[in-house]
Write a structure and sequence with these properties.
- This protein is α+β, with helices and mostly antiparallel strands and about 375 residues long.
- It has two domains: about 210 residues, Distorted Sandwich (Glucose Permease (Domain IIA)), CATH 2.70.70.10; about 120 residues, Glucose Permease (Domain IIA) (Distorted Sandwich).
- The strands form four sheets. Strands 13, 14, 15, 16, 17, 18, 19, 20, 21 and 22 form a ten-stranded antiparallel β-sheet that branches.
- Strand 18 and strand 19 form a beta hairpin.
- Bound molecules: zinc ion (ZN).
- The site of zinc ion (ZN) has 4 residues, from loops.
Length: about 375
């Protein structure tokens, strides 16, 4: 399948619609559009041309007939989504590829991805508790397209857009239980609706494949029982290095507690196996039965996120030196997930809301 890559962003319109900060995005877009016009020809089936892959952001991918645009601008090879939404529905969560390290330039470029109009129509705000800053496009094709978790948008009242026009920036507003990363929740309905009564009858991943020739990553949801977190991720005596309130005072969006084995940082690789401290690191256990959703290197070290989608509970363990699990694995509470060489950060999302995990830890580890 061949497809056309071009950029139709009108910088004057954007300058009017965006504030100062996003004006810079518009300027970058113009540069890249000019470069793209000079360098890009037709794309190859299944991959972006080299010139597109080398540019950091803002290329818009269009369908072969030019009617539809991929909902996020940027380097699509660094993005990932699954066939079905995590709850089994037809939406997609488009996030940075699980292969990207969170401190990498490619990951940071994804976090600046603009959301663009997939087709011509009227775009309106659809903010809500789950989706955060959200938009709906009533397409000229009589379908509806829903965008959620945006960090920002210029849309304040219903307004006409064309395919490929920037609508806002990818973010993590609203509840984002399944992924703590910025991602775009995108859903398609075959007809117009009032309010948020979605039909979501069109599978968004299949639509992306049909229009753009892009496949999904294979991650079929696996069965496990409903559960809530209980106990400590460290089975040795530990101390609270930093409390939830202390961390939240610095970063309200990503508050955690910091735990360390109370014997201090474990010794190096020659350490004897004893008391849960083996082979150069403290053993770290999941406190929640569920599915490993995202396993990624971060500035805090390796991060393991376990979600129970039956109860909308998520625990996130960061700062590990090694992992014993893979993305997509089902893990049981108390199961070994990896090893930490120093303190670990422990986050807890209760139905998508950040909460202090200490009350779930039962007074000791
Ligand atoms: Zn979603």
């Amino acid at each position: 399948m061949s497809r056309l890559i071009r950029n139709t962003v009108c910088t004057e319109t954007l300058a009017m619609r965006f504030g100062d900060q996003l004006h810079r995005v518009a300027a970058a877009t113009l540069l890249i559009a000019l470069a793209a016009a000079a360098l890009l020809g037709e794309g190859h089936a299944g991959r972006l041309p080299r010139a597109a892959a080398a540019s950091p952001a803002d290329e818009v991918l269009f369908s072969a007939n030019g009617e539809y645009a991929f909902p996020l601008a940027g380097k699509i090879a660094d993005m990932a989504w699954t066939h079905y939404h995590w709850n089994g529905g037809n939406a997609v969560d488009i996030l940075a590829s699980p292969l990207l390290v969170a401190s990498s330039a490619a990951f940071r470029a994804f976090e600046r991805s603009p959301a663009v109009a997939v087709t011509a129509g009227i775009v309106s705000r659809a903010d809500n508790e789950l989706g955060g800053t959200a938009l709906v496009i009533r397409g000229d094709d009589r379908r509806e397209y829903y965008y959620a978790h945006l960090a920002s948008t210029w849309v304040t009242k219903p307004v006409g857009v064309r395919a490929g026009e920037i609508l806002g920036m990818v973010g993590r507003t609203g509840r984002w239980t399944q992924y703590i990363e910025r991602h775009l929740h995108f859903a398609i309905s075959s007809r117009w609706h009032q309010g948020l009564r979605w039909k979501n009858d069109i599978n968004a991943a299949e639509w992306i494949r049909a229009e753009f020739g892009l496949g999904w990553i294979d991650q079929t949801p696996k069965p496990y029982p409903p559960a809530y977190p209980r106990g400590s991720p460290l089975h040795v005596p530990y101390r609270l290095v930093r409390t939830f309130a202390q961390v939240r005072a610095q970063n309200p969006d990503l508050a955690s507690i910091e735990l360390a084995p109370s014997g201090g940082a474990p010794a190096g690789d020659g350490a004897r196996a004893s008391g849960g401290i083996v082979g150069g690191g403290a053993a770290v256990y999941t406190t929640l039965t569920g599915e490993v959703r995202v396993l990624r290197g971060t500035v805090l070290g390796l991060r393991i996120q376990v979600t129970n989608r039956r109860t909308n509970q998520t625990v996130v363990l960061s700062g590990l030196a090694r992992s014993r699990v893979q993305t997509g694995d089902v893990v049981e509470r108390g199961g070994l997930v990896g090893y930490a060489a120093g303190p670990i950060d422990y986050m807890y999302f209760d139905e998508g809301r950040l909460a202090d995990p200490v009350p779930t830890m039962g007074g000791r580890g």
